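ok so i was messing around last nite and threw this chain in just to see what happens. nothing serious, just curious
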Amino acid sequence: MYFSRRQRYEFSITGFIPAISCIALYAVTLIFFGPKVGIAVAGAFFILYSLFSIWIFSRTRNLSYIAAFLFQFFFGLFFLTHPKLSFFWTVNSRISGLILLMCIASTVWLFYLFFKKKAKWKGREVFELASVSTDPQPDGFTGRPRPAGRMDYTKDELMDFARFLSSNLVAMPYFEDDRVVLVPVKMDDAFSYLFNPGRFRKERSWIAFDFHGNVTVNISKRDYLGYKEEFSFDQLCDGLGKLFIRFMDYYRKGEAERIIYELNEVGLGLTS
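result:
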């Protein structure tokens, strides 16, 4: 299925910061202290960053961050312990070979998840689908939540639905006293969400399902201005609400895979 792109492309280097930092640290230590120190620093960086991946997994329950943890941890361990690379702690060649095998296996798993879009934050796809039935028209941003409808579901179904969306990087849940607020996260917004989820919640669009079946939507000014053309704010809110009501309906029917299928069918790139 072909979708005409309705959002502006926003390039961000945020996701590349860890790799850039690692390369920079390696280059500096290589120049001033030699290759073995440089490799040791790179190895230590990999292991430390693997802990960050585990922390992200604890927030999202997305398997790609387990794969990233294993990839980072075993590569860091390989750099720090290989007999020909390390200068302070080595292991015998068999153990080093086993560590290398784990490096290769985790790399294959991580790349598989990446190319299957399992590691992709899907907020941009959400906003593309929300605008499908909306025609360009001068209207303007109003910045107020709008009711999006009602549907029947139990509290347990809502909680499980929220966790499903989180583990698939569709929207991050905020659990409140009488409702669950779902906030779609785009690839270029992932670090903003992870490091400051409270502020992120206030500045981004959201979809709220309360425990009485009411659905409310609000589109942030940032996301509204992210479209190439001006759309009716009310129609966009309605489209976003209907989208998540449809997703909830799929989930309740045991057809959760249709949610991911629809999002992937938008056809956006792996890093957009």
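not much to say yet. The two ends are 18 Å apart (CA to CA).
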